[in-house]
Design brief:
single chain; five-stranded mixed β-sheet; 5 strands; globular; binds tetrahydrodeoxyuridine
Length: 139
């Protein structure tokens, strides 16, 4: 991926931090999801007083995209931190990795973890979810 495109994704993910609804943890997360055709969908985490209904930023972005007909994705960028301050990389939780496994090719889907627009790391889904269980297992 080109650096310019990565930085655009980082900017969008950072913008999402201000929309995060995280009154319980105070941990704000933003995500930007890129389709194979180049369209971007954003997401933030949405917490709940009952805790377990909480939706992560990554799944918010995926569900927005899938609910609008998207099925093919090339990358996601994730940023997060306490009170929206990006002190460290925020890696996707196991549930979000599994949702990625449903719609993404584990070898080509890229997961960009960023601290700012110059400081980021890129992993494949395969690296973050080795031996993942996906639709091919049921074929
Ligand atoms: N969270 C995300 O949105 N994405 C991640 O990758 C890690 C965790 C959210 C869930 C919860 O609202 C808060 O961060 C603390 O776990």
């Amino acid at each position: 991926m080109e650096k310019k495109q990565i930085q655009k994704m980082i900017d969008l993910a950072i913008e999402q931090l201000s929309f995060a609804y995280a009154p319980y943890s105070g941990f704000q997360v933003g995500a930007a999801l890129l389709t194979k055709e180049g369209k971007m969908y954003t997401g933030c985490n949405i917490e709940n007083a009952a805790y377990s209904p909480t939706n992560c930023a990554e799944r918010t972005a995926f569900f927005k995209a899938v609910s609008e007909g998207e099925r093919q994705f090339q990358a996601i960028c994730i940023v997060g931190g306490k009170n929206g301050v990006l002190t460290d990389y925020t890696a996707p939780c196991g549930v979000c990795r599994q949702v990625m496994m449903e719609f993404c090719n584990p070898d080509s889907f890229q997961i960009i973890l960023a601290k700012d627009r110059e400081t980021y790391k890129i992993f494949s889904l395969r690296e973050l979810l080795p031996m993942g269980f996906g639709p091919d297992n049921l074929a």
